[in-house]
Amino acid sequence: MPTGAAPGRLPNSTDVLVVGGGIVGCSLAYWLAQEGIEVVVIDRFDLNTQASGANAGSLHAQLQSSRARQTDPKMVESNNHVVKLGTPAIRLWQQLAKTLDTDIEVVVEGGLMIAENDEDRKMIEAKVKRENALGLEAEIISGNALRTIAPYLSDQALVAEFCPIEGRVNPIVATPAIVLAAQRHGARFFRHTELLSLEKLSDGYEAKTVRGSIRCKRLVNAAGPGGGKVAAMAGINVPVAGDFLHMNVTEAVEHFVPHLVQHARRKLTLKQASNGNFLLGGGWPAGPDPKTGLPSVNRASLEQNLWMSIQVVPALRNTRLIRTWAGINISLDGMPLLGPVPGHPNFHFALVVTGYTLGPFCAQLVADKLMGRAPVMDISPYSVERFG
């Protein structure tokens, strides 16, 4: 099976049961199995098919413009935490790329957020100061310096924030590569294994699924947008939802855009993949299919996303669109939800916003906690306790 999913019936028991086979759950299995921890991963669909497989693979470190413009004190604090996570998360991706057997196409050549007027220029200048204070390397570039590194930009681009740690990864190959590496260390993966209910035991949980029941000493909720439903099965209420997002991809053309490109005001995330295709997104809305409930594309988002891309990179005007799709992203309060739950010592969260960038790193933080050692970063700000 290309996804590395195990066939047949679930084992009777395991030490750690991970619910969710996206980038977070699969990475968690990889970190745990490397340490000899018995781990089973289940997913109600196939592995890497929901938020993790439907995203465009951007590696974000700087604040996206919509986050940078938020003024609510709680959201400002949340966004500051996300900035602190970005750099170590991308560095971990670079390390993973060197250890996995497959080329997962990690490319870190920097990200640009362009401004086309004085108001937006002032916004990114303030943003750079804020991000620098949080430990992120970023700077403002303009004039000849901007034209030298990004000659492909429209003449409307006055200045840009340049963040050298940003880049891209290919989610279609990266998650399966992590799964295969985890399997070599003994992790087991079961696709099309929907969780039906949880029963709390004195020494863990019994999870009932469509493939039978499995007992675990510890359960990790890595179910992404479905994380609220999984938590509710354990009597835990968290404000987890899903956002439907639209994305486009063009035909492959000769490489001329090395950066992850964003806009200081408008919705745009633009990058060129290793094979030459352009991946275009930026938070354009999609919606659920009325019959299936699965993500469905939005015609208006398609057209506006393409128009915006051409305004920023005019050379895309004659490039053909070959595919469009919709995905679903996790919606929380702007921060990951990580670690154990007070009163539920065997239940752990691993729910991550900006999931593909932060996924392996946040999974490593949770894995350290499960193995009884101090994570490399304090995860108390990401505890469920912040929701009361």
Word description of this protein:
By secondary structure, the protein is of the alpha+beta class. It has a domain at 1-110 and 167-240 and 333-388: 3-Layer(bba) Sandwich (FAD/NAD(P)-binding domain), CATH 3.50.50. It is 31% helix and 28% strand. It has 10 helices and 20 strands. Strands 1, 2, 8, 9, 10, 11, 19 and 20 form an 8-stranded mixed beta sheet that branches. Strands 5-6-4-13-14-15-12-18 form an 8-stranded mixed beta sheet. A two-stranded antiparallel ribbon has the order 3-7. A hairpin with a 5-residue loop joins strand 14 (269-272) and strand 15. Helix 1 packs parallel to helix 7, helix 1 (23-34) packs parallel to helix 10 and helix 4 crosses helix 10 (355-370). The radius of gyration is 21 Å and the shape is globular.
Mean pLDDT: 93
What portion of residues is helical? 25-40%
How many β-strand runs?
20
**pLDDT < 50 stretches:** 1-6
Task: Kindly name the structural category.
Answer: alpha+beta
Radius of gyration: 21 Å
Q: What characterizes the major β-sheet?
A: 8 strands, mixed
Q: Helix count? A: 10
CATH superfamily of the domain at 1-110 and 167-240 and 333-388: FAD/NAD(P)-binding domain
The first-level CATH class of the domain at 1-110 and 167-240 and 333-388 is given as: Alpha Beta
The protein's oligomeric status is: single chain
